[in-house]
Design brief:
Elements: E1 10-12, E2 56-61, H1 70-77, H2 80-83, E3 88-93, H3 98-103, E4 108-112, H4 113-123, E5 128-143, E6 157-159, H5 166-177, E7 187-189, H6 195-204, E8 209-212, H7 217-222, E9 226-242, H8 245-248, H9 250-267, H10 273-282, H11 289-292, H12 295-298, H13 312-324, H14 341-349
Parallel strand pairs: 2-3, 2-4, 6-7, 6-8
Antiparallel strand pairs: 1-3, 4-9, 5-8, 5-9
Helix pairs in contact: 1-9, 9-14
Family: Belongs to the bacterial solute-binding protein SsuA/TauA family.
Subcellular location: Periplasm
Protein name: SsuA/THI5-like domain-containing protein
């Protein structure tokens, strides 16, 4: 869903990430190879030792849109970080945060789940996927004025972003489902940037259509365009990961998840929409009315996943799809590169059900 241009924007706040496998109920530094999952809820430690929490974090996020920063900003504003022993967080908005996570200059990263798991396998450095951030995927082809049917796409130029990205792959799939033959009926071009840039390319006439997001509907309609094809599905598309922090200060990972998931519970309560958006504007994010109108969809509990969890069957299908798209190495078992104990601890601390359920991974 996201691949952004590198920005030099740095925000003062915190992010989350973690590491592999199952493990005992505390956050002992995981050994990726040989971990046994907690046998019961009693094995999950629901107390954070704040004396072991790293006070200042640096995290990487690949998308400049407020949706990818709000958990941290709300957690800081509400004092949730202070409750778990975290003082500050620097958010660095970087096109691809994984090299910095692998190299050690980032404590955590928020990035595409499949890319993170692939990097964990390829680098063999201890990178582990921890928790889902967005668990829904909107597959949308937005087009400019004058295109009203699949037949109108004949000979037109469209983009799903960079070639070989998930956006590119699912756009081709969406076209095929609607009777349009990619690279025959339409010309597909590779473009950089995020979906906001693709929207502007459609409006400016640089391309005739593009893979867009829910928040773009009203902006595009004001310009005479429309969503021609649209579908949504459950996909654990992105989330937090960590590397060295899991061995250097594993308690910090649980602390971060606890604070940000507490913030997410607040954010996904639709009664708090105005307060959250006011804070985002205060922090310098551009939230026009059209984007604000998408709040209920983008911050639904099953889209901006309220508990940070996922269904293993959904992850199985997602990774299998990505192996088919050649973005994840053949034979990759996501379980070997996922560490769920910090998530389970955070869920227990916050009174949330375990998801995935213990013993279901």
């Amino acid at each position: 869903m996201h691949r952004s241009k590198q920005l030099l924007t740095v925000f003062s706040l915190t992010v989350l990430v973690a590491a592999c496998g199952g493990a005992g109920g505390g956050d002992k530094a995981p050994n990726a190879a040989n971990q046994s999952a907690p046998a019961s809820a009693d094995d999950i430690d629901a107390t954070i030792d704040t004396t072991k929490v790293k006070h200042n974090l640096v995290v990487g996020v690949d998308n400049p849109y407020y949706l990818f920063h709000e958990d941290i900003l709300v957690a800081q504003e509400k004092g949730y970080f202070k409750e778990v022993g975290i003082d500050t967080v620097d958010i660095k908005t970087i096109e691809d945060p994984l090299p910095a996570l692998i190299g050690g200059s980032l404590d955590m990263s928020l990035y595409d789940s499949d890319t993170t798991i692939a990097a964990a396998k390829k680098s063999n450095t201890g990178v582990r996927f921890l928790s889902v951030y967005l668990g829904g995927e909107a597959n949308i082809l937005g087009v400019h004025k004058g295109i009203n049917t699949a037949a109108d796409l004949k000979g037109k130029t469209i983009t799903g972003g960079q070639f070989n990205s998930r956006n590119d792959a699912i756009l081709r799939e969406l076209l095929t489902k609607n009777g349009v033959v990619p690279d025959k009926d339409v010309k597909i071009v590779s473009t950089g940037g995020q979906s906001n840039e693709r929207l502007q390319s459609v409006i400016a006439g640089v391309v005739d259509g593009a893979s867009l997001q829910l928040r773009h509907r009203k902006v595009l309609e004001k310009e005479g365009g429309k969503f021609l094809f649209e579908e949504t599905r459950k996909v654990p598309q992105n989330g937090w990961a960590a590397n060295k922090l899991l061995t250097e200060s594993p308690e910090t990972v649980t602390a971060f998840l606890t604070a940000t998931l507490k913030a997410r519970q607040f954010i996904t309560n639709q009664a708090n929409k105005d307060e959250v958006l006011a804070l985002m504007v205060k922090k310098g994010f551009d939230v026009p009315p059209e984007f604000a109108d998408a709040y209920s969809a983008e911050n639904a509990t099953d889209y901006h996943v309220a508990d940070g969890g996922f269904d293993p069957a959904d992850m199985d299908k997602f990774i299998a799809d990505q192996i088919g798209f050649k973005s994840v190495p053949e034979g990759t078992d996501w379980r070997a590169y996922t560490y769920l104990v910090p998530l389970w601890r955070a869920q227990k601390i916050l009174g949330l059900p375990f998801r995935p359920a213990l013993g279901n991974v």
